[in-house]
Amino acid sequence: MRRSRAASLIAVSTTAMLLLAACGGGGAGNEPGSSPSTQNFDPGAVGRTDEPYNRPMAADIGDITVTLDEGFQDYNNNTGAANSLANVYILPLVQPSPYFVDEELDLRIDKDYMDAITVLSTNPQVIEWTWRQDAVWSDGRPVGCKDMYLLWLAANTTVRDGAAQIFDSPPTGYDRISKLDCTPDGKTVTATFSTPFADYRGLFSTALQAGSQLLPAHILEQRTGIADITKVDPKVDTPELRKAGQFFTTGWNGFDPAVALSAGPYKIESSTRNDTTVLVRNDRWWGNPGGPAKLTVTAVTDSQANVQKLLNKEAQVIAPQAESAVTEQIRAQGGEFTVFARGGQTFEHIDFQMTKPLFRDNPEFRMAVATCLDRQDIVDKLIRSVDPSAQPLGNVLFQPNEAGYVDHYAGLGVGDVTATKAIMEGGGWTLGPDGVYAKNGVRASFTLGHKLVDRRNQTVQLAAASCQPAGIEIIDDPAEDFNDRRLPAGDFDAALFAWVGSPIKSSTTSNYLSREQGGTNNYNNYSNPQVDELLLASDAELDFTRRTQLLNEADRMMAADLHSIPLFQLTDFAAADRAIAPVSYLGFSGGPLWNAFAWQQN
Amino acid sequence: MFRFIIRRLLIAIPLLIAASFLSFALTTAMGDPLGEWKLQRPRTEGEIAAQYEKIGYDKPVVERYVDWAGGFVTGDWKTTVTPGNGTVDVRKEIGRAFWVTARLVIGAEIIAVLLGMVIGVIGAVRQYSLFDYLATGIAFVMFSMPLFCIAVLLKFGGIELNDWLESLGFGRWIITAGPPAGGFTGGFFEQIYAYSGAYILPTLCLVAIQFALYSRFQRASMLETLNADYVRTARAKGLGSARVIFRHAYRNALIPIVTVFALNFGLILGGAITTETVFGWRGMGLLIVDAITKKEPWMVQGAMMVTAVFIVAFTLVADVLYARLDPRIRFD
Predict the structure, then answer these.
(1) A329, B75, B111, B154: which is deepest, by most CB within 10 A?
(2) Which of A65, A164, A273 sits opposite B50 (nearest CB)?
(3) What pLDDT sits at residue A48?
(4) What is the spatial distance between Cα A51 and Cα A39, in angstroms, rounded to a whole number?
(5) Helix (H, G, I), strand (E, B), or coil: what is residue A446?
(6) What average pLDDT does range A504-517 have in this prediction?
(7) How far apart are CA A303 and CA A325, in angstroms?
(8) Are B105 and A273 in contact (CB under 8 A)?
(9) Distance separating alpha carbons of residues B65 and A511, to the nearest angstrom
């Protein structure tokens, strides 16, 4: 799927609950409103607040058609069964959220919904959300306490049906809230955390989808007969809890206008699953109305078909898979269309299996491989045709478009044959008659496993070609089920696959924690106690600057260990009729539709 | 005939059971439906076990097959199971997709077979004429061009036509993918306009490929029949050319094309994958591709069984039509 992009973004959204402070685009402007482009990166300080966001005034631009590679499926994207990027495209336009993620991945308080979000205390951590009085669902009922409580209830319950949690929702983050209090009007909600939680801004926010989208809890009450959802205890197995779980996991599947209410600038008028969804302005929306009067969002899986719809003026905005043929075709049309292509949060990398003696016992061999790879050549040949500004990635915890990014891999992966040979020979390796180094009977040869994806086939070919002259043999090891079976089992010498770099750092750090510390996705069995310590400390560090330092120190140590070599970011891509602007792509929240309410005639 | 149909229907049962075994084996070999899900974020063993239990993959393969087969024959085709794919009712979804495909291919197949028969007959009757050479040439060009290539050419032709229509002050008529944004709404003539604009390109695309197939079969079959002794006898008896061709030769020449049409029609109802993909119609073809991509076992299994049922059914139809067309064929 732009499968990899889609899967990756789903992964982002699935893991998404946590620190949005790290999304910041630049310095640490501590004064609220001090700069429109900076965040307050000091969430640990009592009374601090983040930059605000208000939707702009927009003139009516009529009906707009958008094509995407996947179609909307389910209104409740919080459950494991439903969570999908296809839903992430649509839902931020209809569901409320305390925070809004802007183009620079800054998280801002959404002032169309919130009066304030305030840190009341740091020990224990207490956060207060105050909703605007005029924030209402499309049936006129208020947005607020009950909606937040429902998400907390869903994620926090320990009651199971067999082995399955009855709300089918991930607990991450919500399980740290020990108490959720509401004022009688339901507009002010106070959460007390049992342990410091750096990623509290991701909670209840559409910016980070899974388990974090607010739903109209009063609908659940009406449909289940529960008098007050906030009186249902998540830890006690009661009929009310089970009824709530039943409705939560089934009642909001698909699209039913009677239960799928809107509290955003748009509402869903109709939806055919995985095909076409029509959004119109929400007549109960209290903020500035969106530019498009109607948004028809259609799923077209074939990239070329997307382009042809754009060229034929059937669609004004498209977001197909980022393929060079697609971008070249659109760019060849001259100035009639605009193209947005930028490195996204998903990145490709090569991991060495650290249980294999070849990698475990020979750090110089890992360094040699990292030296013979030509990352710039790989980027030039595979990515730059789509994103001319693409560069090799230099950090596995931060992306270049994030605040805090530091390149720890500069100088590595430059295809330097001479340096590679020097490293190998310095480590006691001898060049054999077959042109491959060997030491103590072990050849400098390994298989590079990956899923059968054309881009990865080409990556391996390029890697093998650049290392072969340096006496290192890389053998292609493709398998359709590589990601399904062999990768989780650690059944590889080296693996080429993608991770999702996320501003929600506690989700990405778990990829690098040792197994003993909870690194269940640590497929290459990397272990460094110092890195563990830094990563765990960062998850509880509320100060953004300090947290960034901790993470970068961990990344620097991992770069020194060279258990993983980052290659490049996959490209986020959208194209549009030049008459419509500004169009871009934000995978976290809406894809090309993230700012659809602001689209104007150019 | 009735006994024959009953017999064939009874034979179809073990055939379909065998097909279901085979498709179930292939579906199982497709991979772990939870593979990608397990990669999305760290998950506990309990969480993974619960998910396998939920989708029925905690059971042995044979038990899973029996469970599925029992449900299938009683109308419970199960739901989608892969996380992120919701819990969609497989039977309803296949029904929806089948309707999309049927609307797309039925008209195209009928046009293609009629066109193919006419061109094939004329080509055979006027063998080695300019028309025959032209028809043969076009058929081979259509055969040798990949369908997506024809589709792209047609689309660009459609875009040019739209630009021209727009320059004349008319609206844009041709739709390159899927239904129009506003749907098929409005008055009778507006709907005709919308339907024709949406269906013309995929229909032309399917017709281009299929007519080539049918015309070649029809021509070859007609030539063989025209050279048969009984046709020569009919001519020797002084029967008119039209009577010889249509009354004596054409009926027998229809037999091979009926077989091809029936099998082809059954197959294409199971999904015109390329056409649906390039023209953005979410029919059976795209449904199967999507289900395989997502490793959605029950959807793949259901769609494959529907295709198998259609092929078996249309094979039966072809056999019955044999008997109608050729009185020498006896089924008892």
Answers:
(1) B154
(2) A164
(3) 65
(4) 6
(5) strand
(6) 82
(7) 9
(8) no
(9) 36
Cβ distance A373 to A417 under 8 Å? no
- Interchain contact B180–A (C-beta under 8 A): yes
Whether B66 contacts B73, CB under 8 Å: no
Residue A210: pLDDT band with limits 50, 70, 90: low
The confidence score (pLDDT) of residue B332 equals 57
CA angle A175, A179, A182 (to 5 degrees): 125
Return the residue in A74, A84, A295, A309 with the most chain B beta carbons within 10 A, the one to mutate for interface testing: A309
Confidence of residue B207 (pLDDT cuts 50, 70, 90): very high
Tens of pLDDT, residue by residue over A247-282, are 999 999 889 999 999 999 999 999 988 889 999 999
Among B86, B152, B278, select the one facing A253 at the smallest CB separation: B86
Q: For A69-97, what is each residue's pLDDT tens digit?
A: 888 989 998 887 787 878 989 999 999 99
Query: Taking chain B, what is the end-to-end CA distance rounded to the nearest angstrom?
Result: 7
What is the ipTM metric for this complex?
A: 0.80
pLDDT at A371 over 90: yes
Contact with chain A for residue B278, Cβ under 8 A: yes
**Lookup result for tokens 């006129």:** A140
A167 in Cβ contact with A155 (< 8 Å): yes
Q: DSSP alpha helices (H): ranges in A491-543?
A: 505-508, 529-539
Confidence category of residue A335, pLDDT binned at 50, 70, 90: confident
Residues A80/B196, Cβ–Cβ less than 8 Å: no
Rounded CA-CA distance B162/A309 in Å is 12
Chain B CA closest to residue A486: B35
> Using CA atoms, how far apart are residues B117 and B123, in angstroms rounded to an integer?
10
Please tell me which residue of chain A has the smallest CA distance to B87.
Answer: A81
Report the half-sphere exposure of A506 (CA within 13 A, side-chain side).
23
User: Chain B partners of A313 at a C-beta cutoff of 8 Å?
Assistant: 162, 172
- Torsion, Cα A413 A414 A415 A420, to 10 degrees, reads -70
SS3 content of chain B, % helix, strand, coil (to 5): 75, 0, 25
Is A309 close to B176, i.e. CB distance below 8 A?
yes
For residues A124 and A192, the answer to whether their CB atoms sit within 8 Å is yes
Task: Check: CB of residue A110 under 8 Å from CB of residue A97.
Answer: yes
Q: What is the torsion angle, in degrees rounded to the nearest 10, for the CA atoms of residue A219, residue A221, residue A225 and residue A227?
A: -150
CA angle (A583 as vertex; A579, A586 as ends), nearest 5:
170
Instruction: Give the one of A300, A313, A485 whose C-beta lies nearest to B177's C-beta.
Output: A300
Q: What pLDDT is stored for residue A20 in this prediction?
A: 29
Question: What pLDDT band is residue B40 in, cutting at 50, 70 and 90?
Answer: low
Nearest Cα to Cα of residue B83 among B45, B43, B51: B51
Contact status of A256 with chain B (Cβ, < 8 Å): no
Best of B176, B278, B296 to substitute, by most chain A Cβ atoms within 10 angstroms, is B176
Q: Which residue has the tokens 């003026």?
A: A313
Mean pLDDT of all residues in chain A?
A: 87
Measured between CB atoms, does A4 come within 8 Å of chain B?
no
List the single range of A15-24, A508-517, B172-181, B249-258 with lowest mean pLDDT: A15-24
